[in-house]
């Protein structure tokens, strides 16, 4: 009995002093302090006194419209109260409204700061016991975050009005400058409206980057005026983005404080579009990707195709495509890929075969270096340009890598969890973390290649002569007879499904020295689209991307340094309810019963169980 009581006391120690308040904004601000003098009504004519700025005034209009349309009624009762019992209910003692919020003064010191990497996003928001609130920010982008917080503080007063439950004072800024989501429109297309809907949600969660993996070997969906023939490889005319579409997406995102970073993946994952310009640009486009005969294996997934690194026409095409797109996209960052460049594909290039024959001391790092030396000058076409590449250019074992990649290239890491973050930052590269072990949202939905004998649980590849080659080449992973659900339970290469808790808990600077940690710009949660399109994007992205959002904005630990995923549960549940109400089909995380009965669905009674 004694230990039982002790655990209750310990549990209470971790509860923030905001028990009577149901509003619970995500991400939780770095500093939030609630008062105790009672609710503040929101005047029907609440006005904002803000400096003249088109983005700011549009955002204020959106906020005003949203809070009255939403009239949000919290579902989750934040808990537990001090007298914790397993099934707490919070008695909301409504006190009389003493004040009405009539006006919010908005002060922005630098109206000119552009939305680029590292721009100041900090803000303060004060709603005192009185009739005037204050938002202060260095930039418009910080002021937008203040508005998104405000939207999550306002709730229904139970009648036809709105209120903020107590006076509140917030001082907030992000832990990491780069907080993003990657969407892939090459494997399956996403209509413009579906992308805009995700951008809305990114902004509500204070995520500030939409990394747009535009094309892949399977399709080329974007108009290139210099090469109109490229969209012959779009899935259809309907499945293309015009320049006007792209500009609309960029300005919509910018109006919400979200940067759009385009990616054209080169020289790997390249076939569609490019081969329309000139078939000689693409090596191995007509090969079978071949898992049956390993020596003919040319790609990690169908369909094969990589830019021929030694063909001069390749660089002419790259230059015209890149110059056109980098003229439309306004961000200083441009992602140029270098994901998974496969050696076997270049067996199909006579230029590469001759190159190796001419000098037997050459290897694939020379070939990779040739690409870097010829393509980087094209990519570096303006002073503030920063190029991003997938880490494969440095780390891909058995792939095409380069010997020397300039340190101003940003590396996006996805392999080996913290190990590669350490490896790259210790070499002096700035890094964006999108570990496939923690952040890949497409994992755990089963494999997608067809005619795959591994779905048959009675099947043993060791007994199957037709793929014994492949089994010999890679017995440890894909073809191991002991892993029918290859990659772990869930039957995809990167199973299991990444739960929001797994995303939330991942420390992207774990094991780094202070100097190395400075090179971590932030993270991105990628949603590759082999099994994703407009029908699934909302529910695969949300609310899991919100877990990333809080983890990268204010961190995944409380003031005492302990993991706070348990407290974040209430926020993410509430945030998901807001998303659904605002038109984003975010997936349910629990039976609604659990939302209404905080802690009733905990696995452990001990509130410290997962805080280690
Ligand atoms: C490429 O060609 C070489 C020489 O013919 C062969 O040994 C190798 O297995 C082929 N495939 C790959 C993936 O390198
Ligand atoms: C990271 O490196 C350690 C030490 O070499 C190793 O034990 C571990 O398996 C690696 N983790 C991953 C995910 O590669």
Automatic annotation (TrEMBL):
Pfam family, one: Glyco_hydro_20
GO terms of molecular function: beta-N-acetylglucosaminidase activity
TM region positions: none
Biological process (GO), any one: glycosaminoglycan metabolic process
Keywords: Glycoprotein, Glycosidase, Hydrolase, Signal
Annotated signal peptide: 1-20
The keyword Signal is assigned to this record: yes
Residue stretches making up the Beta-hexosaminidase eukaryotic type N-terminal domain: 25-153
Record-listed E.C. numbers: 3.2.1.52
Domain of life: Eukaryota
Catalyzed reactions per annotation: Hydrolysis of terminal non-reducing N-acetyl-D-hexosamine residues in N-acetyl-beta-D-hexosaminides
InterPro entries documented for this protein: Beta_hexosaminidase_sua/sub (IPR025705), GH (IPR017853), Glyco_hydro_20_cat (IPR015883), Hex-like_dom2 (IPR029018), HEX_eukaryotic_N (IPR029019)
Annotated Glycoside hydrolase family 20 catalytic domain residues: 176-555
Catalytic residue list: 340 (proton donor)
GO cellular component: membrane
Protein family: Belongs to the glycosyl hydrolase 20 family.
Protein name: Beta-hexosaminidase
Source organism of the structure: Umbelopsis ramanniana AG
